[in-house]
Each structure stands twice: as structure tokens, then as C-alpha cells.
Amino acid sequence: MSLFDWFADRRKGQFVGKVSQETEESDGLWVKCPECGQVVYRKDLLANASVCNGCGYHYRINSEERIALIADQDTFKPIDLGLSPTDPLGFKDRRAYADRLRESQANTGLKDGVITGICKVEEIPLALAVMDFRFMGGSMGSVVGEKITRLIERATTNQLPLLIVCASGGARMQEGMLSLMQMAKISGALERHREAELLYMPLLTHPTTGGVTASFAMLGDLILAEPKALIGFAGRRVIEQTLREKLPDNFQTAEYLQEHGFVDSIIPRTQLKKTLATLIRLHCSQPVKKQKK
After folding, report:
1. Cβ–Cβ under 8 Å, residues 148 and 188
2. Which residue from 163, 82, 60 is spatially nearest to 120, judged by alpha carbons?
3. Under a CB-based contact definition with an 8 Å cutoff, are residues 128 and 75 in contact?
4. Which residues have C-beta within 8 Å of that of residue 206, sequence separation ≥ 6?
5. What's the CA dihedral at 200, 146, 225, 274 to 10 degrees?
6. N or C: which end of the chain has fewer CB within 10 A?
7. Sign of torsion, CA 68 191 141 51?
8. Does 5 reside within a domain?
9. Quick one: which of 126, 128, 116 has its CA closest to 79?
């Protein structure tokens, strides 16, 4: 759980940074688009990468679905599957952190909020990390930071391009300073990857906030985003109260950030795989080396 989610819980859902999944978690055969109201057959929606045919609204998808959309079939090889979080601070707010971890692990089948591995995209090797918002709001704890750092180091050693799919409420408050240290650790690994003249692209999905935005989400050679993704550091209410002025309605959207130079390209999910392959080919100055065993 991130700091955003904790305050949202305390305020009983009134916090503006909290993102509802109620519409997207329905189990029926038909799904009503929350953007345009169009009713779509669920199988048709899934066949279109969970994007509304009517208005282009991007439904939130989990890490397994994301990997299936990006990687060539049967090419994704996960790494560091055994890493699991602990409770170093014995943290407890309304519930014990250990209980929250067990619940998230049971509900998602994941050890923590990110899956990392090596795959191919149109036959091009790629180091891939995918954050999963279902696991405590995609918050970044020690295990998330360690898994991403190990992936970056492997990408550097094997001369691989790197993609991190970001979906997070920020640093995990239950791990205190340990979670904040992950920002520096990942950033250091990315600098070594950059010094090796390798390509790194973050893909910012809905939502990308807090310490993730303040670190690896904004350190890419090319910063990509999905349409209308919420991207920011602090919540709208906090910023408005600090500045004492009203913010634009589209503030902290991918489109607003692209207009102001923080995002390089907004890529619809249905075009993502082809676009990634094209970008990697264009920006690799030499053929990608085969992965070392």
C-alpha cells in the first residue's frame, strides 16, 4: 500500500488520488464503458487488448495480460520469482502489514507488485518489468526495487534494451525509509545501463504516481504513456492547496504531460507491440547481442 492509498482509506475514499476499479472488476459477460457508456461483449473487449472500440478508453489490465500483449508467444522467461517481502518494521496501521501482504498474495497469486523477466518482441530480445496495481496499489517496496534493479543489471550485462511498465501509487509506506531507498538504487542501476549506451523506455500506465514517478518512471531515453493515464507525484488536492490556485481539468494526464514535454509519445495499447519493436530497431546502434546464459 502506498501513502496515497493509506490516506484514501483514512478518508473513506474521499482522496482524489484513489482510483476506483469497481467498473473494471465486474465478472459479467458484458461490460459498460465508464467513458462513453457503450456496452461491449467481454470477449470482444479482451480481443481488442481491453480497449473500448467506441472511445478508446483503456481498461486497467494485470501484469499477466500486459506481458501477453507485449512479448512474443511463449518467449517470456521470468526471473527472481522466489523473492518475497518481509515486515522489517513490524508495521501496523488499521491492519498489520504482514496481513496485508498475505491478502495481496492470495488475491493476485504474486509474491509482490512486479514481474520481471526476459522476452522477445517481434524476435528482438527485451528485458521487461511489469508492475501490477492489484498488489497493494502497485506500491514500491524493497522486493519491487530489488527485482527491478536485478533486471536492469542483467540487461546491462547482456546488452539488452529495457522496458519497465509502471503502474503504482508510489513508495510503500509500510517499509518506511527502506522503500524510499529503492528510488536511488534503481536510478543508479539505470545510470550504468545508460553508460553502456543501451535503450531504456518506461511505459507510464494508469496510474503512475509518487516515488515511482520521482525516479525510474521519468529517467527513460524515451518516455512512453498510455492514453489518458494519470501521471503525477502528489495528488491534485495537495498541489492545489499548496499553490492556492485551481489546476486545469486535464492536469496530470498523459496528454497534458506530453504537451508540456514530460512524455515523449502516447501509444494506444493496440499499437504498443509494433511500436516498441520499431523504436528498439531505430535506437539500437548495433545488433542486440544474444543473451548470456
Report:
1. no
2. 163
3. no
4. 19, 58, 60, 167, 226, 228, 229, 230
5. 60
6. C
7. negative
8. no
9. 116
The reply to whether 7 falls in a domain is no
- Each residue of 28-67: pLDDT tens digit? 899 999 999 999 999 999 999 999 999 999 999 999 999 9
Q: Which residue is associated with the grid cell 512479448?
A: 71
> Is 25 a domain residue?
no
Instruction: Return contacts of 278-287, CB within 8 angstroms, 24+ apart.
Output: 279/199, 279/201, 279/222, 280/121, 280/124, 280/126, 280/161, 280/199, 281/124, 283/161, 283/199, 283/221, 283/222, 284/161, 284/199, 285/197
Dihedral angle sign, alpha carbons of residues 81, 83, 87, 89: negative
Q: Which domain holds residue 87?
A: 61-283
| pLDDT tens digits, one per residue of 143-178 | 999 999 999 999 999 999 999 999 999 999 999 999
For the chain, give the longest Cα–Cα distance: 56
Least confident window among 125-129, 156-160, 234-238: 234-238
pLDDT (average), residues 80-96: 95
Close Cβ partners of 158 (under 8 Å, ≥ 6 residues apart): 118, 125, 127, 289, 291, 292
CA atoms within 13 Å, Cβ hemisphere of 144: 36
pLDDT top residue among 220 and 2: 220
Distances (CA, A) of 57 to 53, 96, 205, 269: 8, 36, 12, 10
For 21, the grid coordinates are 476499479
Residue 227: what residue type?
Answer: P
Taking Cα atoms as reference points, which of 106, 102, 90, 186 lies closest to residue 144? 186
The CATH number of the domain where 227 resides is what? 3.90.226.10
Number of folded domains that form the chain: 1
pLDDT confidence of residue 22: 39
- Asked whether residue 15 is domain-assigned, the answer is no
Question: With DSSP H G I counted as helix, E B as strand and the rest as coil, what are the percentages for the chain, rounded to 5?
Answer: 40, 20, 40
Residue type for position 213: T
C-alpha 282/C-alpha 250 separation (Å) is: 32
